[in-house]
């Protein structure tokens, strides 16, 4: 039986989602907890990877488990959730574990992913760990105009980490824009069918250059069309980035 596991985590203490040698990762921590409670080797395949320090309000993964005869798959999922949460550290929490079709794939069947990036202007001890402080005044109206230009493109090589092993740098962006949360906090929300490594933080860094009037709208387009990471803006700190949603077709579920 295949299960989807829905979880959230504070990425501050981890070198990203994916298992890597000599570094603490969310995937490794989750695998170890599941392996302990289920008494069999479990490997969770994630819907994607988040970088060092990046958080997830919602991450989805899948794993396979052999059930005992006549065991209810939904009840088993609930028990797994309760038991694994008792072993996981405070900064990783499982929301639900649900059975899915045997062919369901948390990574390849996702139809969209949504990220949010937070920027604050004033020093705030309660947002320090989860927002990027920029003291300069940003032109968010102009930044939102630049966001609309993203829909004209599909090749986002200029916003991709160099030397990655993906077959294509094409993505379809469905939503992108800035909204003010309160007097001190702005949030950038972006939704796409897929994202390249470092893509969101590079887009935010380039939009910040627009907001500082270092780059105009024509220059923003030239950056995308240049397909060169070196001409785009800096990669913003990971601590302010959250994976917030992943969507799947209904037919994957019972």
Note down, in words, how this protein is organized.
- Strands 1, 2, 3, 4, 5, 6, 7, 8 and 9 form a 9-stranded mixed beta sheet that branches.
- Helix 1 packs across helix 2 and helix 3 (140-149) crosses helix 4.
- The protein is of the alpha+beta class.
- 33% of the residues are buried.
- It has 2 domains: 2-108, Alpha-Beta Plaits; 112-245, Pseudouridine synthase I, catalytic domain, C-terminal subdomain (Alpha-Beta Plaits).
- The chain has 5 helices and 9 strands.
- It has helices at residues 26-38, 73-87, 140-149, 199-211, 217-226, and strands spanning 2-9, 45-46, 55-64, 92-100, 112-120, 132-133, 173-180, 185-192, 241-247.
What is the topological layout?
Elements: E1 2-9, H1 26-38, E2 45-46, E3 55-64, H2 73-87, E4 92-100, E5 112-120, E6 132-133, H3 140-149, E7 173-180, E8 185-192, H4 199-211, H5 217-226, E9 241-247
Write the element-wise H/E pattern from the N-terminal end onward: EHEEHEEEHEEHHE
- Computed Rg: 20 Å
Decide which structural class fits the backbone.
alpha+beta
Shape descriptor: elongated
Main sheet: strands, sense, barrel: 9 strands, mixed
CATH fold assignment of the largest domain = Alpha-Beta Plaits
Q: What share of residues is helical? A: 10-25%
Query: Any low-confidence stretches, pLDDT <50, length ≥5?
Result: none
CATH class (first level) name of the largest domain: Alpha Beta
In total, how many beta strands? 9
Q: What value does the average pLDDT take?
A: 96
End-to-end Cα distance, whole Å, is 12 Å
Tally of contiguous helical segments: 5
Instruction: Give the DSSP E fraction (strand runs of 2 or more residues).
Output: 15-25%
Instruction: Give the CATH H-level superfamily of the largest domain.
Output: Pseudouridine synthase I, catalytic domain, C-terminal subdomain
Quaternary organization: single chain
* CATH architectural label of the largest domain: 2-Layer Sandwich
Query: How many structural units, i.e. domains?
Result: 2
